[in-house]
Amino acid sequence: MNAVNVRHSALWMVGAVIAFSLTAIAGREATSQLSGSALTISQLVFFRSVIGLVLITCVIFLRHGSNARTVISSQRLPLHFGRNFSHFCGQWCWFYGLALLPMAHVFAIEFTVPIWTALFASLILSESLTIKRIISITLGFIGVLIILRPGLVDIESASWVVLAGAVAYALSHTLTKRLAGIDSALTILFYMHIMQLPLALFLVAFDFSWPQGIAWLWVSMTAMAALSAHFCMAKALSLADAMIVMPMDFLRLPLIAVVGYFLYQESIDMFLLFGAAVMLFGNMLSLKEKPVASGSE
């Protein structure tokens, strides 16, 4: 890993940040009771998997034609399943939180992901825990505590669901890093959708209904934005250590706070702004660090 790869990885993460924010907006609209045709969280996850699988399959065949079979072949199916199952749990918890909590609140809790990712990456990938990375992760955790203020304000039960999702996402990101050195981003995304589809089908089997009206638009947008986000994430993780890539995800918080303010009249308090500033400082500290070879490469 070198400085050029780190810069390219940062650019891919910018794309991921924007796409994840669009996913949040579309996901909330798809499950909003105000739409008159709201989907359940499980239905949203199911149709997202269906549309995403169609899209990624089309992309693979358009780009690789007769060689498409080589793209969708993998010798690491158990690793793919572990990655995709943990991601499935994470996304369900994430959409659940978006339906009940302010967007910035959900994203703030989710930003414990780099903390758990650092622990998983150290254990699973043998990545180096340098002093600057430890400081960066610590600042991120402090920023989240400033925003949530546990013990000073009541934390809703949905917040704990989102926190559980953050742990699941961290495991997923770590396994993505392992897979990125073996399979292509398209391969990872293909198996994500094809493996998550039966999991989602199990959840909606006894409560199935088709999206109505504009719900189709929001579900489709959710699938396309999420697919783009995960492609960008996989590319970023293939170029740099997970503990360098993931702190950049903190940039989503100020972005989604502004979106929530203008689209949903969600207030932005000083604690959120201060906590976001602390996390951003930690993020920049991590990015300025000279790349260090990890034991996994």
Task: Write structural notes for this entry.
The protein is mainly α. The protein has one domain. The chain has helices at 3-31, 41-64, 68-71, 77-100, 103-110, 113-125, 131-148, 157-180, 185-204, 215-239, 242-245, 252-264, 270-287. α1 packs antiparallel against α10 (215-239) and α4 runs antiparallel to α8. Mean pLDDT is 83; it is low at 290-297.
Write the SSE topology.
Layout: H1 3-31, H2 41-64, H3 68-71, H4 77-100, H5 103-110, H6 113-125, H7 131-148, H8 157-180, H9 185-204, H10 215-239, H11 242-245, H12 252-264, H13 270-287
Question: How would you summarize this macromolecular structure in one to three sentences?
Answer:
With 297 residues, the protein is mainly alpha-helical. It contains 13 helices and no strands.
